[in-house]
Specification:
globular, Rossmann fold, alpha/beta, 14% strand
């Protein structure tokens, strides 16, 4: 295995859930972390906590990945010592609503497409050329979803965005095949974070019901896999990992114990 110590890791959507857990895993391993999210106060608090606990360098930058020009400006404005990004973790993503397609909220569709697809594209387009120019053994790790493999009722648009993440990961892997850059797509099943709270527009009761009767994955479970993929020997490319709780087979084939 190779070390990620002193490597620069850029993590989007780092203010909570999988992004936050990835930040902690990489910080513990000695990497230098760039955290980005819309919540400026939260990512700065996380940065301060990681620096204090692990004595590593952490840079927090406020960024909404949906904004193309904001992404460009944020990357261009990085201090010189932070510009050679070794690992990009495209984690920013969300799901909104669970209505049938013909009844869906177009504003929800726009938010999912702009974050899950366009945000990933904007960061990848800006950072990967720098990896190539700097002759880095770069690594792009995309956080996809089992929803990108199997659609389910009420989730057509979200599933489509995560299917796009899978295809974009495969396409990028082909496009950088003549470089030392690796591309990994992580496809989790049920992970208990604020994902369902956001999906149900803040309805805590509905969100909690999603995980009743099953032990879901944790954000830390996914962060462990991300770190493992990044730590694999330089000649080893982990292309794709699909991970679910034991009692989940697909997005909607789930066994829940009755109370």
């Amino acid at each position: 295995m190779q070390t990620v110590k002193n490597k620069i890791v850029f993590i989007s959507g780092a203010s909570s859930g999988i992004g936050k857990a990835c930040a902690e895993s990489f910080a513990q391993a000695g990497a230098k972390i760039i955290l980005c999210a819309r919540n400026t106060k939260k990512i700065q608090e996380i940065a301060n906590a990681l620096t204090a606990q692990y004595q590593t360098e952490v840079l927090a930058i406020p960024l909404d990945v949906q904004e193309k020009h904001a992404v460009t400006n944020a990357i261009d404005s990085l201090p010189a010592e932070w510009q050679a990004i070794d690992i990009l973790v495209n984690n920013a993503g969300l799901s909104l609503g669970l209505e049938k397609l013909q009844q869906g909220d177009i504003a929800d569709w726009d938010a999912m497409i702009d974050t899950n697809i366009k945000g990933l594209l904007y960061l990848t387009r800006k950072i990967v050329p720098q990896m190539i120019e700097n002759k880095l053994n770069g690594h792009v790790i995309n956080i996809g979803s089992i929803a990108g493999i199997h659609a389910y009722p009420g989730g057509a648009v979200y599933c489509a965005t995560k299917s796009a993440v899978k295809v974009l990961s495969d396409g990028l892997r082909m496009d950088v095949v003549d470089t030392p850059i690796r591309v990994t797509n992580i496809q989790p099943g049920m992970v208990e974070t604020n994902f369902s709270v956001i999906r149900f527009h803040g309805d805590q009761q509905k969100a909690a019901a999603v995980y009743d009767g099953i032990q879901p994955l944790t954000a830390e479970d996914i962060a462990d896999i991300v770190l493992y993929a990044a730590s694999a020997p330089a000649h080893v490319q982990i292309c794709e990992v699909t991970v679910t709780p034991v009692h989940q087979a697909t997005g909607r084939v789930i066994y829940k114990e009755k109370k």
